[in-house]
Amino acid sequence: MDRFGSSVGSVGGRLREVWASQSQPARLAVGAFALVAVLALGFFGFARLRPPDYGVLFADLSPDDASAVITKLDAQKIPHRLSADGATVFIPVEDIPDERVSLAGDGTVRGGGVGYELFDRTNLGMTDTQEKIAKIRATEGELQRTISGLTPVESARVHIASPDVSLYSSTQEPTTASVAVKTKPGMTLSPQEVRGITQLVSGAVEGLKPENVTIVNQDGTVLEPSPMANGPDGQPSVDALKATADQLAAKQRYETNLQENIQGLLDDAIGAKRSAVRVATDMDFDAGQTDTEAYAPNGTVRSSQTEREQFQGTGSQNRPPEGVPATTSNVPTYQSQQPATGQSRYTKSKTTTNYEITKTETKHIDAPGKVTRLSVAVLVNVPNPVPPPANAAGAPVVAAAAPAVYALSNADVAKIRNVVAAAAGIDPARGDVISVEAIPFAPPVEAPVAVTTRTILGIPVTALIAIAVVLLLAGAGAGALALRRRAVRATTVDLPSFDSALADELPSFEEHPMLEGSPVIAAPIRSAADLTREQMIEYVTTVAQENPDSLAKLVKLWLAE
User: Fold this and answer.
1) Span 102-111, mean pLDDT?
2) Taking CA atoms, which of 253, 363, 380, 556 is between 20 and 30 Å from 388?
3) Quick check: pTM over 0.70?
4) pLDDT tens track for 313-326
5) Are 217 and 182 in contact (CB under 8 A)?
6) In this structure, are residues 307 and 369 in contact, taking their beta carbons and an 8 Å threshold?
7) Would you say 499 and 560 are in contact if contact means Cβ atoms under 8 Å apart?
């Protein structure tokens, strides 16, 4: 042990001697290298020993699913963490994609309850009753997973009651279902969403009517679905709010298409970013139907009949009744026909024409979405003219290649107005409005560029680059210092060895004239150590003036030492 301690002490002493023998630049280089090495070791140690970043593998798990996931992770020796409520599992970020696909693929995460995976294995000994119960369980599990996937729903439970089939429909009990829903904090189910869940459950179970589905929340409150209005044919009609939303969407699409068409026309004509177009419309979404029946005054002749009767001659021919039609001529006897006397002429003609009735029925249906008014506004960019720069004398300086200033005259604005009116289909009789104005646009504002910081192992890339630059500079400095020391050693000349005769040839220090009667020195001086810096400089200057050869020999002596 004593020998070991002495050897350690000797090594320490040697190191101190080596350190003391080094020059100041060498010490700085060694210190910089040691600092860089410590920083590098600290960086790599931090990168290797820092805990991994954890991310969410699965959230909102049921207790059964969470237990199955933890068992799988333990079997694969993957570090994991569990949230306080036991519903969220965390694992290292780099393992999340593979584990999520693996656990979802082998059926570890079922999403609460069991579904149709109950029938993955064939059970030959299953009775009809067991098969019916298994089918109900599978349907309940699938509905639970589907309802739990809705945005406001955190978890759900579904219970289906399917009675036995009766021989008589009058005594058949209806199928019923109950749904218990737990909503997420701060969220509720709207009547429309309750209606959707009701339709979902009733459509998934055979023989289940929507009115036989009951939905309750976590507070035990029965949730009522929104009423569904029926049309004239007894079928559900479109909800008024949805119809309004569709009308607004149709109006917006019409305005957007028209605006894009006009904007494209102006961009091709006067250039991009030189115009702005806005379109507003009033549309009538009322559907109307008009039925019209019209009869033609002169229709098609269906039949025509003509009768003619003519008498000329001297034969007997009854005359028509004569006399005044009154009581006198009728009483006491009736007026009778009198025979005609003399020559007579009798003519009778009758024509009957039957026309076919011409009837025109017109049915006109006004489709909803008719444009009742259109407004188009167009702005054209006309930059303000920039005056030419003036020299010191005030005269304008003509630029060699000045860009042409884009300008529009009143005639150009009128042309643009006519073109836009034709493209938009402006109808003044309908009350349409179009406005085209030429004004200077505001200069575009450059959006700040978003700077994203990239990291490697949680450390910013800029810090890694800075550390790499410091390491390179330190290495370059150490290499340059080593090359310099090697060059100095290669160019070192042999100095003269110490010669004691040189000291004998120099004048005695104590016998120098400056020491005799010097008013500055209060006491006798016996050696150079008793002199101040100024006195030593004066002594060397005097020796150099009186005996330069001796001074040269003195310098050689100092170099030899």
Assistant:
1) 71
2) 380
3) no
4) 665 555 555 555 65
5) yes
6) no
7) yes
186 conformational bin, left if phi > 0, alpha if psi -120 to 50, beta if neither: left
- In whole angstroms, give the CA distance from residue 280 to residue 258: 10
Listed in sequence order, the DSSP H helices in 299-361 are 327-330
- What CA–CA distance (Å, rounded) separates 321 from 336? 6
Report residue 380 as tokens: 């054209």
Q: How far is CA 60 from CA 18, 22, 29, 64, 149, in A?
A: 67, 67, 59, 12, 11
DSSP for 118-163 reads GGSS--TT--HHHHHHHHHHHHHHHHHHHHHTSTTEEEEEEEEE-P
Secondary structure class of 354 (helix, strand, coil): strand
Residue type for position 357:
I
Cis amide linkage into residue 332, ω under 30° from 0:
yes
Residue with tokens 């992770």: 73
For residue 267, is pLDDT > 50? yes
Residues 343 and 548: their CA atoms lie apart, in Å, by 197
Residues 35, 36, 39, 44: what is their CA dihedral angle, to the nearest 10 degrees?
A: -150
Of residues 205, 195, 194, the one with CA closest to residue 159: 205
256 C-beta neighbours (distance < 10 Å), count:
11
The residue assigned the tokens 């034969």 is: 315
Q: What is the pLDDT of residue 522?
A: 40
CA distance linking residue 26 with residue 34, whole number of Å: 12
Q: Is there a contact between 144 and 137 (Cβ–Cβ < 8 Å)?
A: no
Contacts 24+ apart (CB under 8 A), 57-61: 57/89, 57/90, 57/91, 57/96, 57/99, 57/100, 57/103, 58/88, 58/89, 58/100, 58/103, 58/109, 59/87, 59/88, 60/87, 60/88, 60/154, 60/155, 61/86, 61/87, 61/88, 61/89, 61/109
Among candidate residues 429, 430, 416, the one with its CA nearest the CA of residue 378: 416
User: What digits encode the pLDDT tens for the residues 420-460?
Assistant: 999 999 999 999 999 999 888 887 766 555 455 666 666 67
And the tokens for 128?
A: 């009809």
